[in-house]
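Sample entry follows:

:::
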Amino acid sequence: MSDTALPGSKNPAARNFFSALQLDTRLLGMIGAFVVLCLVFNVVTDGRFLTPRNIFNLTIQTVSVAIMATGMVFVIVTRHIDLSVGSLLATVAAVMAVVQTDILPDYLGLGHPAIWILAILAGVIVGIVIGAFQGWMIGYLGIPAFIVTLGGLLVWRNVAWFITDGQTIGPLDETFTKIGGIGGTMGETASWIVGVLAVVAAIGLQLASRRRKASHGFPIKPVWAEATMIAITGIAILGFVWIVNAYDIPKARLRRIFEAAGETMPDGFTTGYGIPYSVLLLIVVAVIMTVVARRTRLGRYIFATGGNPDAAELSGINTRLLTVKVFAIMGGLCGLAAAVAAARLGFSTNDIGTLDELRVIAAAVIGGTALAGGVGTIYGAILGALIMQSLQSGMAMVGVDAPLQNIVVGTVLVLAVLVDILYRKRTGE
């Protein structure tokens, strides 16, 4: 046995390979489960699950929950919970809908280019204020987060009803609806440009991280391991771009686009949708939240408080104010998610965001966020949201009834927590 082989390992080469790559074993497990899930559904749906069209739809359906799941990671890491996110989304969506259909047109006129920006800004601000208010009650008044947000679940859902008078508000601003999915995509050329830039950025970050570790005397990966990770990242990014570009815009829709521009569509012309703006927004949110978690004082305080609240407070961290900040971030992300959800529908409805609180919490937990606090990743939560949506979409395509779908999702959530508990016992975390 070589010096690097692990005692008792049945496959030392494989163990050494993954050890050199320094990959999170839980992340590998989730990716493996996701791949198996997709392959199974692809077989039972006669190849329809992994078509470019379904993958495109799957991504835009995942975005709103995934955006909120990134904020739920911070909430759960600090040993709290937020049951109000679905209702808060409904309130914020109602605010944005009323602002852009009833309020701003009176001052700016219909179709003003600033309407969609101001509407989203108003919604995000309302979300931050409500989130901070709930965080203040939890941090400074000492009311348990479960009770505060359970009350919020009931309050904000009905506040949304009063804002809209129980009516569906729409149609929403045309530019606003472009961030919802099919109505707003980058097109093939712009998508390839963004994909290539993303690969270059990933390579730059990988090399910068390597230089930073070497300068501080930390262990670094072998060159082949760095090259392998760069290759995997590049293939994943460009592969996704290729898939969304492969979903062609229907000819009837293309013809209408050309006619709206006063042009005639060339014979045989085809083009793909490309990356949806909503997915681009999710990527930006994921990058920002990851930077906050890993590179800022706020992120260090969040994880330190979740690991040991008493020690964090004794070390000088203002845990009360930190709670306000965490829930304010959660509220702001609910605002962005509400914009995506309402834009995808083209209307603000009374039932928008129903049960999203359960989907968001499930996504974070399935993604590896520990309910005991102190442990969680942004990319894990997004992957958890994608797994949840894939599970529901796949069952819907197979024809599984909604009650059975909920039974399966609930069972998967419980099993995910069980696996997490067993993993931590085995690793001693």
Q: What stands out?
A: The CA atoms of residues 142 and 220 lie 44 Å apart. Residues 1-9 have pLDDT under 50 and may be disordered.
